[in-house]
Protein 1
Amino acid sequence: MSSPVYLSHPSSLLHDTGEHPERASRIVAIERELERHDWFGMERVQAPRVAESALSAIHPVRYIRAIDELCAAGGGQIDADTFVVEASYEAALRAAGGAVELVDRLLTGVNPTGFSALRPPGHHAEAARAMGFCLFDNVAVAAQRALDEHGLERVLVLDWDVHHGNGTNDIFHASDRVLFVSIHQLPLYPGTGPAGDVGSGAGTGYTVNLPVGPGSGDATYLSLLEHVVTPLARAYAPQLILISAGFDAHREDPLAQIALTDAGFAAMTAIVRRLAAELEVPLGGVLEGGYALDALARSTAATLQVLTAASVPAAPGDVPLAREAAVALERLAQRWPQLSVPAR
């Protein structure tokens, strides 16, 4: 059996943001930790540049050209949080390319699971607007690739970054071909992702925002995944699951107030891995945020240890139903009658 794949590229280190929270040392910290674990046996592959046809399926060509030209001119500030240098365009092409290559490999059976660990991250990038450290929406480009080139009809994107993935949310807002589920702190940057944002048009009901308050920890997240995301995915029956894997919901992260632990990320991954096995669909992760370097490295390793394990993790005991999960089930059952609130 083939090994899980780890996609990376040196260009991620050349997107030089200095002491900005989203900095090159994030990748260095992750890979130093993975090396300690012998990369969990993953096949290491350099990410290709994304094809313009794949990128332009999400981002208008004029926007792609604008990022290219800004970088070619030496870079500059895009907004208060986001800036680029000359090497940033190449890094962004590889970050999107890594996510696309991951999908191609998963859907053709080259690798059973995998992780794309490149920067800049992507989930805040709107179709024609860079923001929140992000230039191109890597996971959205990859999900669209699965639909356009592999003939899939349904993709689940699970975003557990602590910040709402407003870009992915908006890109697929009117589509029923991508079920976008986001667990995120609210209020927090970018201020989007209320529970009442459920999509629009044909996509109504296929945007699922699960905001949680400051101080939420492992118990809340595991309950949402076990009692809300799992039955929702069973009802939707995706043909591919992609995780927008941010690690800034860790209790050590400086940019938010969520209290996840290393073990929490491992347990979350175990739930999603069991779900993918039950549905018999591929599962991969794409790196998003995470700004406490040690916590980022440990949490990524904890996630990949579970994602790449030879066997699917055994189910735990009963996961208590958190208040946030019960409220979400009551709300979602109006559009997803397959969901029900279990007795507490």
Note: The CA atoms of residues 49 and 158 lie 24 Å apart.
Protein 2
Amino acid sequence: MPETNRTWWIYQGTNQPDKEAITRLPPAPPWRQFTDKASDNRGTQFKPTDPNEIELVNAALYLRRPLLVTGRPGTGKTTLAFAVAHELQLGKVLHWSITTRSTLPEGLYRYDAIARLQDASLRGDRTTLPDISRYLRLGPLGTAFAAGKRPRVLLIDEIDKSDIDLPNDLLHIFEEGEFEIPELARLPKDQQTVKIRSYDDNGETIEIKQGRVRCQEFPLVIMTSNGEKEFPPAFLRRCLRLEMQPPTKEQLSEIVTAHLASISKEEIAGLLDEFVQRREKQDLANDQLLNAAYLVLNSIKVLERQELQDALWKSLSGEGE
């Protein structure tokens, strides 16, 4: 391999220790930084690719209905929630990532009964249990419905990965706007006003009366789906549906320059052409273009390195390989 191709390498593969090599590593891409500031800025670079996206977000806000967002991976479904929360100053996005094991109670609240019993045992007084509020914490869904007069943004990410029952289980809370915490409802009446922790990491507590949580203002619920399964008609009837469209070449250019302000359009012109051509045959995401653009910004000639280019732009579905 020509020597000039190695100039950007940090790891050389020589097995010769070099303590200073890592100091040549440039700052991380903005989307791969994990500081509190980077987390707070998530969504600030989002640019809607279609006015319909803006209209449906507003319709969901007006109607107090959940928004089901579908589209190809990497089209900005998740980032949309952060962009709305940032622009409307609705606080930190309440993020609930769905798996096949996710259940409605997990999203509403968690009660650590075992820890409570253990603490009572350690105190040597098994007749009087410790204050229950120390062992309860609202989940992302529960916090969204327990919030005050300003709505929160709740992101239910990849809901199509859920068990078949979860969409149906969500229907009641979406329609009624309330839920019960049985552990609090069973307390004596003089103990039924309890402050418990919210899902936020800021130590905030929320007052719950008589074990019932009822929303004052319906949250903006954004649910993302990659189309891995169909949803029940009753569930779809209660949602507004938005399909995110892949951005055009011009919009891709704006996305790249929004994330990498110091890169010029001339530097990425060839990269955009190649990416758009590949996207016609392969299932590619926007962040795959951003990864390549970041390397170009650091003087790494991606288009001249076919194997690197193929690795960066590998089809997400395997089609077109």
Note: The chain is about 35% helix and 15% strand.
Protein 3
Amino acid sequence: MATMQTAPSARRALPPRRPRPSRWQRMWRKRWVRGVLAACAVVLVWLTWSVGSYLTAPGGDSVAARLAEWARDHGFAPVVVTLEKWQYDLHPPKVGGAPPPISAPSVGQSVAPPTKSQTQKASAQALTIAMRPPMTPPVQPALPHEGQWTTLVQVKGQPAVQAAYVRPDASHTSYLTGVVWMSHKLLKFNLHPGFSQPGGTWTVPDWIPPSQRRGLVATWNGAFKLADAHGGFYLDGKTAGTLTTGGASEVFYKDGSMTIGSWNQEVHMTSNVVGVRQNLTLLIDNGKIAPNIDSNPEINWGLTLGGRYYIFRSGVGITAQGDLVYASGDALSAGTLADILKRAGAVRAMELDINPAWVSFMSYQAGNNPNNPTPQLLLHDYQRPADRYYTTTSRDFVTVYAR
């Protein structure tokens, strides 16, 4: 029986043999692979060094805060914002419920530095500072003690620093906002840099050394990073960033006084100005809340979780009498923060830093050791410890002393 043979045309066509790479091609490929691996190694070494410099920098910033700062400083700010928004959407502030019992830190006596003349001492002792009339809380009916002022720090026997607590709005009733009033007659105010914000070299230290703690009565946090603040930082006769016309500004003077205003409108550079810290535009001006408080919140009130988000916020203002008011707490929008500062008597006010990693207010009690007063938190839910400014800190801050 004849064997059937496949016709040549029906045979399966074999793929053409790939030519063997030449010696030159093989050498080029090896060099290319080595180059890619070397580039990856360089990037890895740089990344390790760059991130490591943030993780090992001085100060008490958390690992999460340090990583977020590195990302923002290296072009990944949109990624950080997106992650923070996802976090907010997954864990929004609680609605309803009751706050913790309303109570203030214990009252203490701040001892003024022993450099005052007898005339100055007599003048200070002649001052009579009244307790503030109760604030009208945003939520009615008010809880027991809500909006009522208590003394945090006495200076020369007078209630120089007073605090009150209120719920921020009718929805977020399980949170308390701490509000502080500070007498401009009994206190003086100073601006400090942080070692990375604004960075650079300054004669004013980026912490409160032991030699500068006598007479200390309060501290509060700074504002946004200059890249996000749309303004500048001035101290020691030099400027970081740019002092921007219309920018909301904390302004510090040689005599220890300070004010809040819009730059080149209500406040200006003069020979008496020793410090300026700008951040966005005013929340309150001429006793009125900014008309754009609820419009374009991520442009007007911060890219990171803009003004419509209910998060940890802080702000500072000045009253018609020249006294300072500060407010901070969780579950605040830009609008509710402005409302509380206005209720506290502010005729001009500005937003400071946001997010719990950066916000804090401390009062200080001299006790038996006036050269090393003990710090106390205004709110227990701050992330930072009370002695935050007794060590090097990454961001700028304000110190308050007895006159």
Note: Helices lie at 23-55, 63-73, 77-90, 118-126, 226-229, 297-300, 334-343.
